[in-house]
Amino acid sequence: MRYAASPGVPGTESVRGAAVQLLECGRIAHRIVSERSEGTVSAVFRRSCYLKFAGRRTICLGDRALGRGPLNAQVERFEVPRLGKALALSLDGATLWQPSTRWGPPQRAALDALRDAAVGRIPSDGLGALVCGGSNALIEHARPALASLELWLAGGGLGGDAETLLGLGPGLTPSGDDYLGGLLIGLRAFGRAADADALWAWLGPQGSTRTSLISAAHLAAAAEGEAHESLHACVDALGEGTISGWPRRLDWLGSVGHCSGWDGLAGVLAVAQRVAD
After folding, report:
1. What pLDDT is attached to residue 112?
2. What are 50-89's pLDDT values in tens digits?
3. Is 156 left (phi over 0), alpha (psi -120 to 50) or beta?
4. What parts of the chain have a pLDDT lower than 50?
5. pTM for this one?
6. Pairing of strands 20-21, 38-44
7. Beta-carbon-side half-sphere exposure of residue 29 (alpha carbons within 13 Å)
């Protein structure tokens, strides 16, 4: 991965070189880069980094191990850049990734198979224990917010307690945000798009003040029905009534972030168990 010269961008560091060639992009990442090809490194990890663009937009750049997602842009070989470095990206020849939208109502048999496979796999941190009805200190702290969302899913009003999930928990994308993202994905996937719109109309304005730029960007992607491909694999299997292959899917999901995959799945299941056939 070569870094591109970035003249005229105040407050950033740059070096000369060719634009970074992208191999595959999620839909939102593709849209951002097509509008403005240059971003500034805002967070760095061993195999990926985040780039910030004008208008509080962000994408995640990494190698194939990053996986596919709406904000993800993959390169052949990732070299860790310095914070503040300006990078120019090229979409020439890049493949566009979008998740499947062939959704049907979740099937009870698939839900049962998922929960059976989840036993012994759920991390102790985060909100993933909700998948099998478990608990931990964070879940107990979040109980009022979770109860408020359950009431809303059942047709009631959305109480103020629900907003305390935003920014709740440690990590780049806090567990509460990942749960809310899963909720948005589940609503879109399982026939409650109007509720997803209503939830996002309430959540969206709060994202800029109650959570990080990166987490807010993932929430905005979830509001459009898109998340990491490992979560979509679970959503698709629920809609197809698939009862086999859940250990493999959940191990894949568990590789996303510290516990982000499981937090998102817990949000999806909050919808799925309510509307399942």
Report:
1. 97
2. 999 998 899 999 999 999 999 999 999 999 999 999 999 9
3. beta
4. 2-16
5. 0.92
6. unpaired
7. 32
